[in-house]
Design goal:
With 488 residues, the chain is of the alpha+beta class. It is 47% helix and 11% strand. The protein folds into three domains: 136 residues, 434 Repressor (Amino-terminal Domain), CATH 1.10.260.40; 128 residues, Arc Repressor Mutant, subunit A, CATH 1.10.10.2910; 151 residues, Beta-Lactamase (2-Layer Sandwich), CATH 3.30.450. A hairpin with a 2-residue loop joins strand 7 and strand 8.
Length: 488
């Protein structure tokens, strides 16, 4: 690679269309050149050049080099990160604010940045915007680090199709070590895997409430509850073993905690539903246009949620189908979510999805009204990003009921069983008129007489305990280990 090639590659990585656009405009005005003149030299329409100067589209390296020659400035000068003037800096800041999730959540019209808009007016708007952001962040001060880490992790999952080849390889090696020949992994095989890794399993009645399991690495013991929190007792054992295999220690921050949870759950899922057997099963189902999460569940004797998670791991990588996964509380609040099919989950002003209320017309909420809890629930939904097909099912856990949904774009629904459903609804969320605002007649009828008593979540006012990122009662854990440690 030549030095010029390296400069171009670096330039593509560092492009900031807003700053570059303002530097182009400043260079043009410094030469006394009109927009029309620059457009003619570039062989473009003035409107196309205006879009570039306003940072409305990214500019290609070749275009930027051509503009630099016309304006008689260096290529590097146009790439300088600082705005060309104080006014340009204010305009850039305002443009960025308007493109952010906070501004968009306010449902305000776009404010054109014109010469008539004074510097003082822009500064006032920016200060108000910054204060709103500060208040939002202050309101969510305790979980903010976790929210940011979760958002970053979710973006990574989406970019890689929720597929982790290194974890698939680790699962394959573990299964080969115990001679697993395919199909569901039994509880006996799970115990054999623990023994292979040097651990004994101990089921106790006094496991601290804040834990799912406790691993004693010194004595190679894994302590598990007599009454497992999970519906599948294998999953708790496999998650503990996965943490050992991956060399996980107590998390040092929220990001570490969330990544550990994702990786250990993934490895456990890859052991419960081995990649090779699952891909063969799903490929055959796709060939017959009969893909079904229920069938994957039954084939490998796992919960519907585990099958749906695993399907999201394999669908894009091996079947070429982008999908989304969503777990929803009966109230409509999102508990977990993943997508790489461009479906638009609701989010707050800071981009957080978990805890937001999903549209009542989505299948994730419509399924709660279905009287048939045995059969799969299928639905097409016309959404702002397009039409999506979804299959949903209600599951129960220690915290009550929740729905699990797997969906995909209309074009990929042809591969799934249930694609012939006639159930089709429309959602315009986040438009409030879709389902978040009551009808006028209802508002008028009950405005003065309705007063609901809210159920206050215990976690609403509670901060994470000092000194921990997990919420685990460390004193209880250490006392437990000391109480159960084998005598010398």
């Amino acid at each position: 690679m030549t030095r010029n090639d390296a400069v171009v590659d670096h330039a593509e990585d560092m492009f900031d269309s807003l700053t570059i656009g303002r530097r182009i405009r400043a260079g043009r005005l410094a030469r006394g050149m009109s927009l029309q003149a620059l457009a003619e030299r570039l062989g473009k329409a003035p409107s196309q050049v205006s879009v570039i100067e306003n940072g409305r589209r990214e500019i290609k390296v070749g275009e930027l080099q051509q503009i630099a020659r016309i304006l008689e400035v260096s290529f590097d000068d146009l790439l300088r990160p600082e705005p060309p003037s104080k006014r340009a800096a204010l305009e850039i800041a305002l443009e960025r604010a308007q493109r952010g999730t906070l501004y968009n959540s306010l449902a305000l019209p776009e404010l054109p940045v014109r010469k008539s808009l004074s510097d003082e007016a822009i500064e006032t708007i920016l200060k108000l915007h910054d204060e709103l952001r500060r208040l939002h962040e202050e309101r969510a001060a305790t979980p903010e680090e976790a929210r940011r880490a979760n958002g970053q992790l979710r973006r990574e999952q989406s970019q890689r199709g929720n597929y982790y080849p290194e974890l698939e390889r680790a699962a394959r090696e573990l299964l080969e070590a115990i001679g697993h020949r395919g199909g569901p992994i039994s509880q006996r095989a799970t115990a054999e895997l623990a023994a292979h890794l040097g651990f004994t399993l101990h089921y106790v009645a006094d496991l601290p409430h804040s834990t799912r399991s406790i691993t004693d690495a010194e004595h190679h013991r894994i302590y598990l509850p007599l009454r497992p929190h999970a519906t599948d007792p294998r999953s708790t054992v496999l998650q503990a073993l996965a943490a050992h295999v991956l060399g996980k220690r107590e998390p040092v921050d929220f990001g570490d905690l969330l990544r550990q949870r994702v990786e250990t759950n993934y490895l456990a899922g890859a052991i419960l539903i081995p990649e090779q057997g699952a891909v063969e099963f799903l490929t055959a189902a796709k060939d017959e246009r009969a893909l079904s999460v229920e069938d994957l569940r039954d084939e490998f004797s796992v919960s519907y949620e585990a099958a749906a998670h695993r399907f999201s791991n394999l669908a894009t990588e091996h079947l070429g189908i982008p999908v989304h996964f969503i777990k929803v509380h009966p109230s409509g609040a999102i508990l977990k979510a993943y997508q790489n099919d461009d479906v638009q989950f609701p989010s707050d002003a800071l981009g957080t999805i978990e805890g937001q209320v999903v549209c009542r017309w989505w299948s994730a909420r419509q399924v709660f009204g279905s009287e048939d809890r045995m059969s799969p629930y299928y639905q097409y939904t016309d959404k702002p990003a397009g039409t999506y097909w979804c299959t949903s099912r209600i599951e129960s856990g220690s915290a009550g009921e929740f729905s699990i949904s797997v969906g995909t774009r209309f074009a990929d629904a042809k591969w799934f069983r249930g694609r012939d459903t006639q159930r089709r609804l429309s959602s315009t969320c986040p438009d409030p008129s879709c389902c978040r605002e009551p009808a006028d007649e209802l508002s008028s009828r009950w405005r003065e007489t309705a007063w609901p008593s809210a159920r206050l979540n215990a976690s609403l006012l509670a901060a994470m305990p000092n000194g921990t990122y997990t919420g685990v009662d460390r004193v209880a854990v250490l006392e437990f280990l000391d109480r159960h440690a084998p005598s010398a």
